[in-house]
Amino acid sequence: MKILLIGGTGRISAAVTRLALQMGIEVYLLNRGNRSAKAPEGVVHLRGDINDEAQVASLLKEHYFDAVANFINFVPSQVERDIRLFAGRTNQYLFISSASAYQKPLSNFKITESTPLANPFWEYSRNKIVCEELLMAEHRKTGFPVTIVRPSHTYDETTVPVGIHGQKGSWQVMKRMIEGKPILVHGDGLSLWTLTHSDDFAKGFNGLLGNVRTIGEAIHITSDESLTWNTIHNLIARELGVKPKFCHVTTDFLAKADPGLEGALMGDKSHSVVFDNSKIKSLVPDFAATIRFDIGIREPVAYFLANKEMQQEDPDFDRFTEKVIRAMDEAGKTLVND
Predict the structure, then answer these.
(1) CB neighbours of residue 47 within 10 Å
(2) Which of 92, 132, 243, 330 could make an S-S bridge to 67, C-beta 3.0–4.6 Å?
(3) Which domains are seen in the chain, by residue range?
């Protein structure tokens, strides 16, 4: 099998690339080569910018692929470009959507692929929905061989997934834990969340490659494990060797304090999510997410602690955290003294 991965060195695509090579698949990567060090030995590099349609068309003119997967499509114009580039050039085009596209708020706690798509809180998710609709319309019209894949919150050996963080990522939250300072947790911390290790995601994803039963279908690939946000943060803190302190804050308050949090919280993390993975298991019978979060989180925490370049401090987010905590404390004191 010959496949093309557009990106191929990111959080979820790197695991897909590694596993594909182990499976004996001929793997081509199309990217600008800026992260070549992350590409494993054995891939064939096509160096180019997918946003330069003419350049990419020239690179692809001698190639036909059994499957093409684009991991860096976020808006409808990018999907329209890919339809032009890959129509008649592949047996399968895999679009990586997002489980955040599912209905918010949910009408049923268990999510299947039939759960409606609607997210009024997050533009990122709405764009993914439009991309899906464009691809399915093209499939119905011309037979364009699309398979839609919806990951949920996926982490790898270099990412520590926390509930609320700033522009520079998770380290400032971890640093606050280490220093014994409270961290922000949305709601009461008891909503359920699903975290999937990228190696588990890759097992499901690669099982879809070349699978004719997936054409014209949408499939999510997630772990079956659902944990509360309190538990998630407790497990991270355990690997840091500390006991965390939580400041629980309503999602509405956080979104008002920082409107930039609205999408990620009101449009995603503040909702309990429990996924029914029956469909991926029927399409890929040997698929099982086997990496429990309490085991999977060990490597990324150790990676952060061992690599200074990952320890990017974020004073703006730290100040924001302190302001929110102070506001909550002052509100409590006002109510007590009123």
Answers:
(1) 13
(2) 92
(3) 2-155+195-221 (3.40.50.720), 171-193+227-273+294-337 (3.90.25.10)
Is residue 40 within 8 A of residue 20, CB to CB? The reply is: no
Using alpha carbons, select from 19, 69, 1, 97 the residue that is nearest to residue 286.
19
Find out whether 67 and 90 touch, Cβ atoms under 8 Å. Answer: yes
Number of CB atoms found within 10 A of residue 58's CB: 11
Q: Contact at 8 Å (CB) between 221 and 204?
A: yes
Beta bridge partners of 153: 195
Q: Is the pTM of this model over 0.85?
A: yes
For residue 23, give the amino acid letter: M
**d(C-alpha 17, C-alpha 275), whole Å:** 25
Measure the CA dihedral 222/223/229/230, to 10°.
-170
Tokens of 234: 């407790």
Q: Of 170, 321, 151, which is closest to residue 236 (Cα–Cα)?
A: 170
Tell me how many degrees the CA angle 47-159-78 measures, rounded to the nearest 5: 40
The overall longest dimension of the chain from CA atoms, in Å, is 76
Burial class (CB within 10 angstroms; exposed 0-12, middle 13-18, buried 19+) of 213? exposed
pLDDT in tens, 149-187: 999 999 999 999 999 999 999 999 999 999 999 999 999
Residues of the chain with pLDDT > 90, as a percent, come to 92
Write the pLDDT tens digit of every residue in 280-311.
999 999 999 999 999 999 999 999 999 999 99
Report d(CA 208, CA 283) in Å as an integer.
7
Q: Tell me: the pLDDT tens digits for 72-129?
A: 999 999 999 999 999 999 999 999 999 999 999 998 889 999 999 999 999 999 999 9
